[in-house]
Write a structure and sequence with these properties.
With 719 residues, the protein is α+β, with helices and mostly antiparallel strands. The chain folds into 3 domains: 10-120 and 443-603 and 611-637, Vaccinia Virus protein VP39 (Rossmann fold, 3-Layer(aba) Sandwich), CATH 3.40.50.150; 137-180 and 226-420, no CATH class; 641-719, no CATH class. Helix 9 (293-309) packs across helix 11 and helix 12 (362-377) packs across helix 13. The model is unreliable at 1-5 and 616-621 (pLDDT under 50).
Length: 719
């Protein structure tokens, strides 16, 4: 163990910003297979963390990108610690380099995800487990997702069932379906609309913003004009009264009733016949149609079965706790986690859970549970539909709970088409475990026609051998990963010394991890609570979580300081502490500078890196930040900082910021106006760590410094 930490490392001087940004951006929309096994929130790019780890090892004279594609699992003399391991990106990338890893997280779901990611298995055995599951379970689940083909009238597979929530009008008591519009979807270059009068579903060649006439009942309507007007208001189609939506919902006391209004399906019979005269040929044998009486009957059978036999299944019955993120659920009368699913979803998800509970092999069972986390994301009453993409977006496509007026019910088992189904989740599980054995990086190259292409470069292996002995023995043990589910503010006695602290802490109030993950936790704890004590509670820990939220007593910045300081005591002399951060609020950045100082660290270098595209769903309609700041710190062994006047501090900050923006432009990194705050505070953190005190005639109060720098930021970066 150990490294020559007294020698300056590459990450303290430079970083391949453009090359890694180019790799990171597409990865955020399509993660490596190992990170697609389970759903976790705000995952960072694995390319960034692999580069950070290598930057902490390499000397400034070395070329990081050469090592990026060649360094295998050989760096076993180095030990890293991540006190906020979350979905495990830092741990997995360090294991891939051969490092010994200590990962800590207070959230049991995060702990479980990282554990199953690092677990290596024989893929043939996993394939056999999946095949056995298919043989024993497929028919039992798929029978609840059948419909009839509108072309050949044979039995066909449901892909999606579209539902609309209904609200009694407070004035006339008529039932109002909460449609924003009457567009169902697109298929084979045809636009499918819903008649608001007779619920006929039909293709239309007219623009959706024109007057449409239903071919069945001759009702005229505008497909773009639904009954819901914006976010807050609804208009009754019968009495024409308008009223506040949330007030009306709360007066009902229960979650709103829903009714199905359209079906998307796939006909395997037509596909097998491959009849060129079939109307479904051009749509690859998919169809969109009106909900039939048989479709309603099948759902009613599923509902009655669930009401009769639900006590024989595994499903969560916990109440939803009041929180900053969950209060919207309670405002819409969702009081139990089971309210977020319809009866057919509860039935089929519980069938799968019961099957998983009977898997004898612990590792196999846990891997299936890891896949089940993804299944939950796409199978609930909060899944939105993308008409042009013809796919569902999971409940966590945004980092909040967002009640919908219309939602799309997936085929839980799955068919040839569809997203987030059980067969797709098991396929991702298998691909993820294959990736453990053959992990790859993407590399861009010019082909013989000078066209830029991308190829995979396989390097390393992810083979987590979990430590199960005494924590103090980890450094000398043959095991290479120690995962702890606990608060990082206090480590056990004789906690191992580490060479690097590498982490991606919660970004203040950006994501409320525990409240979101309770949606997942209440399901998997049904099996894991007897195996792991930290799954015995009915919800994930809240009081010790390091996030900024109004409804808890925990001071986020003090908590972060305590954790950073605690981790510093485990860091070998001269070891680096590197973490990523971004936020749109200057006040959060100013407070972060105090956190770093209070925990005994100096910022020695920062690097701004593009981490995702500006148009992803979870950052839309906000002051979108698509860059991360890589913050490189060292322990403050003694205070060697120089004093500086406020005037010189501001001038230096302005110059460094403008120079850095120019530098990024020269090397080909485009900094969007929203991201300039990240560059600005990178320079602020470096200067603040180098110069203290800041004075006029006397030391400048912190609030005055912050006010002055905020004014400077506003003048440099007007929005």
């Amino acid at each position: 163990m150990g490294t020559d930490c007294m020698t300056k490392k590459l990450i303290e001087t430079t970083f391949p910003i453009v090359e890694i940004s180019k790799l990171a951006i597409p990865e955020r929309s399509s993660y490596k297979p190992i990170y697609q096994i389970s759903k976790w929130f705000a995952r960072r790019s694995s390319s960034i963390f692999r580069a950070i780890l290598l930057g902490c090892i390499l000397d400034p004279s070395e070329n990081l990108m050469e090592h990026f594609y060649t360094t295998e699992d050989t760096l076993n003399e180095h030990v890293i610690l991540d006190p906020f391991m979350g979905g495990g990106t830092s741990i997995i990338e360090a294991l891939r380099l051969g490092m010994k890893c200590i990962g800590v997280d207070i959230n049991p779901v995060a702990w479980f995800i990282t554990k199953t990611e690092s677990m290596i298995v024989e893929t043939e055995e996993l394939h056999e487990l999946i095949s056995t599951c298919t043989e024993n379970l497929e028919a039992k689940v798929k029978k609840w997702y059948k419909t009839s083909c509108p072309e050949c009238k044979s039995s066909a597979d449901l892909i999606y069932t579209h539902w609309v929530k209904c609200l009694p009008c407070p004035t006339c008591r008529s039932v109002i379906p909460l449609f924003r519009n009457f567009l169902v979807g697109y298929l084979a270059n045809e636009t499918f609309l819903l008649c608001p009068s007779c619920y006929m579903v039909f293709p239309s060649e007219k623009p959706v913003d024109s007057e449409i006439t239903c071919p069945q009942c001759d009702t005229g309507f505008n497909a773009n004009s639904g009954y819901r007007k914006g976010r807050k208001e609804i208009e009754c189609p019968e009495c024409k009264d308008s009223f506040q939506l949330l007030t009306a919902i709360q007066s009902t006391k229960d979650p709103l009733e829903s009714k199905p209004y359209a079906i998307e399906g796939f006909c395997p019979h037509c596909a097998n016949e491959k009849n060129s005269d079939s109307k479904l040929t051009k749509s690859n044998f998919k169809f969109i149609k009106m909900v039939s009486s048989d479709d309603l009957d099948l759902y009613e059978k599923a509902e009655n079965h669930w009401l009769t036999y639900s006590n024989q299944y595994l499903w969560p019955q916990e109440q939803i706790p009041l929180g900053q993120t969950t209060k919207v659920l309670l405002n819409h009368n969702y009081t139990k986690w089971s309210n977020l699913f319809n009866s057919r979803q509860l039935l089929t998800l519980s069938l799968i859970m019961r099957y998983i509970s009977n898997i004898k092999d612990d590792n196999g069972q846990e891997l299936f549970l890891a896949a089940f986390l993804n299944l939950l994301n796409h199978n609930n009453c909060f899944t939105r539909y993308s008409p042009k993409g013809q796919k569902v977006e999971g409940i966590f496509s945004r980092h909040d709970f967002h009640p919908l007026s219309t939602y799309t019910e997936n085929n839980v088992w799955g068919t040839k088409y569809g997203r987030g189904t059980w067969i797709k989740c098991l396929s991702r599980l298998l691909k993820g475990k294959v990736y453990n054995l053959q992990p790859y990086n993407f590399e861009y190259y010019l082909d013989t026609d000078n066209i830029v292409k991308r190829r995979r470069v396989i390097v390393g292996k992810i083979d987590g051998n979990e430590h199960r002995g005494e924590i103090r023995d980890f450094s000398k043990a043959n095991s290479n990963v120690l995962l702890l589910c606990q608060d990082s503010e206090e480590f056990p006695e004789n906690f191992p010394k580490v060479d690097f602290l590498i982490t991606d802490p919660p970004y203040a109030d950006n994501v409320n991890y525990s409240e979101l993950s309770d949606f997942l936790y209440v399901w998997i704890r049904l099996i894991l609570r007897k195996r792991y004590g930290f799954f015995s509670l009915t919800e994930t820990p809240k009081s010790g979580e390091a996030i900024e939220t109004k409804n808890r007593d925990t001071d986020y910045y003090q908590k972060l300081s305590n954790i950073f300081n605690n981790c510093r005591r485990s860091l070998n002399p001269g070891g680096l502490f590197v973490f990523t951060f971004h936020h749109s609020s200057p006040d959060t950045w100013f407070k972060l500078s105090q956190v770093i100082e209070n925990s005994g660290f100096n910022v020695v270098k920062t690097h701004t890196i593009q981490s995702e595209a500006m148009n992803v769903l979870n950052i839309q309609n906000k002051k979108a930040i698509s860059c991360d700041l890589i913050i490189v710190c060292q322990s403050m062994l003694e205070d060697t900082r120089e004093e500086i006047s406020l005037n010189k501090f501001v001038k230096r900050l302005k110059k460094n910021f403008l120079d850095k923006i120019t530098y990024y432009s020269e090397i080909g990194l485009s900094i969007h106006v929203n991201n300039k705050i990240v560059v600005f505070f990178g320079e602020y953190l470096e200067i603040f760590s180098r110069y203290q005190p800041i004075y006029r005639s006397t030391p400048v109060p912190r609030d005055e410094l912050w006010k002055t720098c905020k004014e400077l930021l506003g003048s440099l970066n007007p929005i």
